[in-house]
Queue: 3 jobs
Job 1
Amino acid sequence: MVLAVESLNRLLHCWILLISLIFVVNGQFPTTLEGPFKPVTVPVNYSIIGQVTSLPVDDNPPLSPEIEFQPQQISLSLSSDLSSVWVSWITGEYQIGDDIEPLDPQSVASVVQYGVYKSGRNNLAAGSSFIYSQQYPNEDPNNYTSGIIHRVLVTGLDPDTMYEYQCGDPSIPAMSEVHYFRTMPSPPKDYPSRVAVVGGLGLTYNTSTTISHMAANHPDLALLVGDLSFADLYCKNGTLCDFQNCSFPQSPLQETYQPRWDHWGRFMQILTATVPTMVIEGDHEIEKQADNLTFTAYNYRFAFPSDESGSTLYYSFNAGGIHFVMLGAYVPYDKSSDQYKWLERDLFNVNRSVTPWLVAAWHPPWYSTYKDHYREAECMRVQMEELLYKHGVDIVFNGHVKAYERSNRVYNYTLDPCGPVHITVGSGGNEMNLTLEHADEPGNCPDPSNTPDRFMGGFCGFNFTSGPAAGNFCWNEQPEYSAYRESSFGYGILEVKNQTHALWMWYRNQDRYSVGADGIYIVRQPDRCPS
């Protein structure tokens, strides 16, 4: 049965690649060399706009473990070493209450049994385990304590190789089912065939469609650009609520329903147990709690290649001939900050003969033309854009805005053939609805004083001083740097073909998983745009 499924997956993958090749031969995909392109706004399809419905996790928790200490919420992530992969999972159940007995992390072993596909799982790797808590003020009876989180670094892996593995404690026994993954290829001439990119997932029926379509496209790597479980949109009693109803009186703390993370992790296992998944924090991961702790669930639930950056909120990694830089928008980013200094060192050390492609990702977009979150990250752009431009970043991925948008090549709000292409993919499912209004439409331009990010503060939203919008905070038409925008749920796939060409495709949930709504070849010009 496993061989049959594997054969079917390979057949589907070949069929997808064949379709892609047919498109290339027929010339149906434009290239950035033909740009800049005239701005396009796709009319809203109101048949997909409606009440967002959460999955019924309380009545039927997805993939709930059948036996005690059976691994759940299994996920893979890349390490800083090409030959290593992190395997993470959770055993035992979370507990709610102030007077509870936390599970003992030492009571269950953290073991991964693995081997090359079809050659047996004869290798063992052991790791560490821990728990975390989400604490509310005044010994609240709704305090949350997690199950046991396990983390194992599997080392000595060969590049571009299919492996099979099980995780758990073989002495109980309580082992997972057998899962499979493929390691990243070796640079510089090889690349992961498909990199899936999405933000704003949540746990709704839209999320289910997004993830099922994404998995059907067989990505080798997934990037989640923030706003993951949306646990902070739920009060501590588990009901969906707003900030006013969920906030503590005379306190900056925000209620958050941590079991939502567990439901989300179980659901996402259909992707994360087989596809290495790299995440970066969004504002919905802040989850401020007692003692001013933030990003607690995010820091504990995911493994990061953060050896050199020293932070889980910003880091970098290689995947074949691509160097990814994951930046934190909710941690200091000014030129005197640790993050900025690390970014300078990281970019300086990038060898473009080894990793020709340089891709950056963070949560709030710099070049979104939607009304929601318009120019919210302007201070971050002012501090960091020049550095990224100087080092020749090719593509930028963002989330935050619940819509899709792709820019022309742009730098400092000016069309520039050497600027990166900015792509916003923040509509993976979320617990809210799609963003529909644009800041350039009559009456939609936000008050500049209301645009700064609430968590980071600062104000950099001044009026434009040049160009068609000079003297104004917003354009009065779709800006020339915005090439394509659409309010639909979906995700994207990046296929790097060689050192200069990469195909980007945007897939909408209302279409079949193999039908792209927006596609373009992003072409590097290293001779014209040296870094």
Job 2
Amino acid sequence: MKISSSIFPIISIFILLSISSVTPSDSDDSDDFDDFFQCLPKQSDSSIPITDAILTPNNSSFQYIYQLRANNLRTFLSATSRPVAIITARHPSHAQAAVICAKRHDFQLRIRSGGHDYEGLSYTSDVPFVILDMFNLNSIDIDMSTETAWVQAGATTGELYYRIAEKSNVHGFPSGVCTTLGIGGHFSGGGYGFLIRKYGLSIDNVIDAQLIDANGRILNRKSMGEDVFWAIRGGGTTSFGIILSWRIKLVRVPPRVTVFTVQRTLEQGATELAYRWQQVAPKLPKDLFIRLQPEPINNGGNNKTVRVSFIGHFLGQADGLLRLMNVSFPELGLTRNDCLQMSWVESTLYWAGFSNGSSIDVLLDRVAVNKVFAKEKSDYYKAVIPKQGLETLWQVLMDIENIFVQMNPYGGRMEEISDLETAFAHRAGNLFKVLYGIQWSESEGGVNATARYVELSRRLYNAMAPYASSNPREAFINYRDLDIGSNESDETDFEDAKEYGAKYFRNNFIRLADVKAKIDPKNFFKNEQSIPPLPSH
């Protein structure tokens, strides 16, 4: 996500939390609590003691680790409890033990890789729970002879890009723009980035996986079966088990690529260009991806306008890009001076918002430093937004101010893959996907500010309803949004799940529920937007 720090205040990672830890209040609870911790060493590899990986609220580093990989500070305001423990797994058996013992002693398990869940479901719950933190399981094993790699769940997108670049300057992988995303969760919801039109989603290039099921078994593609392998690619893995690692197929990229950013304000014809972009961007050759990103700006007093950025990535050199743009989108007026040529791995820095010339070593920074209060929502568009609709969008942006919108074109490879190929169903027929995000600072207040900004995000979402997909109004699971429907922390009502399930997974929801019934019939793996087992008839 490329966000200007001049627009949104930066706040410290450390904040004062008004939530309390869940500690046993009677003897029965205390027995369960103690039994859980005594269970863990018995179920894990003794050569790598799990006791060294367990943090409780009594540990001095507990609060630091809890917050370190919790990237949306808003979620703490609504949290009623902290976890009874954090298991910072250092060996696959630690994750297996967490499943077996949490299940045996009736603790809910939340799985966290990078901590980028927009609603914080990977590290909050309203019932006694344990966080299984996968961050230390971050190995990346690349085999250039087969152009494949095994990537553990705790590795970040930045680490993956860096390790590929160590081996080759003509290989890459299609996944997120943000470089601190945990691979485990990012891939499980689909995983997309600026290679989406050329190579599809991350999951479209996954060829195997290791999954821990509700019985603590480690399964691969063959042993889990094709139905489960289908479900974990785009269906949100934490409904089905715990991803240990993904096996991916690397993709080919040229030695040099070209990136650009062209900005136009409303006074410079941005509305006409945005209208034209909708018609052009989804139909461009696969090698070219152009994101449209409008943001409100204030030139002083009441002199507000909207500046629209056209951010492009081309798998080729500048001369070829200019020839293509002169034919397909001459209205943008792209010039040679707008273009920057660089290696593919350097282009990942460009998209992440690092300054030109930054060392690729920044890709190894695994934790997002600047935390924010935020609320995000998503939409899919199957028809061009009329100019009147764009003007509505501009007006709401100027009214709200602290908000950003990203419009990402589809077409290309996404048109070619069936919506039944994986659990990810948003394929052909979509022109673009949109992220709406609003952010605010700690200085603006706590609960009251949160309520106000969340309501503003809903105002924008409602304003765009006439133009977005409908029946259902589709949403992207990696842009988690509890507004579209949810369950309680410890319950998964099927009728409630159908509401958000249809929006996230369209017609694939029922098949996902059927798979859930087979691999996790007692619904051990659950959260507020998980997939329930399909009821038996």
Job 3
Amino acid sequence: MLQAQVFLWAYILLFFPASIVAQGLGANWGVIASHPLDPKIVVNILKDNGIKKVKLFHAEHDILTALSGTDIEVMVGIPNHSLESLSEKYSVAQAWVKANITAYMGKKGVNFKYVAVGNEPFLAAYNGTYNNLTLPAMKNILKALNEAGVGKDIKVSTPLNGDVYITPTYKPSDGIFRHDLADIMNGICEFLHKNNAAFIVNIYPFLNLYQNPGFPEPYAFFDNDDSNSMDDHGVKYRSVLDANIDTLVAALKVSNFSDIPIIVGEVGWPTDGNIYATTKNAKKFYNGLLKRMTKNEGTPLRPKQYPDVYMFSLLDEDLKSIDPGMFERHWGIFSFDGQPKFPLDLSGKGQNKRLVGGKNVTYMEKQWCVYSKAASNQKDLAVKVAWACNNTDCTTLVPGASCSGMGIDMNASVAFNMYYQMANQTKAACDFEGLAKIVKRDPSNGTCRFPIMIKTIQTTSNSSASAPKSSRSSTFSSSTSHSPFQTHSPSPSSSPFHSPLLIFQIFVGIFTIWFV
């Protein structure tokens, strides 16, 4: 009997996943970080939590190698800056496919499912730069995939921002594509339809709340009552995500492409850097989303099947642009070191389960850099803190964030420690002309956590067609339509730290108030 029980448990462990997740759930994996987590550890996080789909913003050798042989479905991206060369020269597309797809295929290779050509290339903020490059690039990539014999198994699409469609009446059923993109979207949809590929759209309910004063907070989440719903000819929408999806469904129908499947390529909720960006709200949002996915009832205009959804994001990224907001570096359901931020049941059943964090993560020494009250030059403190924040991540200090309102000592210590940790704990990085000192006791207090940096490896890109280390960073796009849906608008950036004057003004202002 004992042997039979042992055999049964061994069978369960071998043949059943460690965690059950909602059908169609995936995660975005970005690497805009000063200390990226070892890809092998990240892949184990995916496996341990039962996440079987991952979306990458560009091809990196170490990441693709770590994904090899795992059966995790991979959507690999091509950055916008590559669209021109890919659209003009088929040989560039051939080289990209050879370097980033076929080189990783085989019996124990990467399970590629999609190539995502560009990332939100039709944003109004881009002023049409990529409008006539995206579809030709998509066609060349598909041609190269077909030539390599993998075009039937690997689909080609392009992730688009929700600003490509509008609704003149605010009602989802009146959704149409933006007038200036009508011909382009018709071509994109025709390509997707012909090749049985999905329309990929990025949607951010958090930004509706963040950007629009007076936006009903419950409508950004799920399961709210009729007092915070939208009525569309008798149909009640109780979440802006469902309304946004159906606006796209309506736009596709108007364009005679009502059967194109939809993938939500990015959706999530940040956990810091803004009054609405909290772990409590993130947990509430994801629990509602996962419950909707598990029910699989679809949306009013496309019932019976909810779209596949890729959470944004798997990990925090401390070098992302803060142009959209201070929350931008805190989208992960895991912190930068692969540890879960809050309990989350990925199955959608609402159980208070803890995610499985990264294992065998190597940290630097247990020491921190904090403000020294004993220093003689206290009058320079505001300037030194501002300088530190211009050169590190101080997004936890802004009003409403996890370290805000804790006094001058804590705020200075947060700034100094973040600079020190991101500088690999070098002794010179904890000086600030005597205003800082190294301590061995963790100065974390309440919601304000003082991290210790991890030891890291540098990932490598595969080809000149791969992106620099960026994913979705950076500016806002304000829709010119009468649409209630405002979504994220990334743009490239030359520097990992942004708006230094803004950060300087924020912290000099804060310290001036304190000292006065």
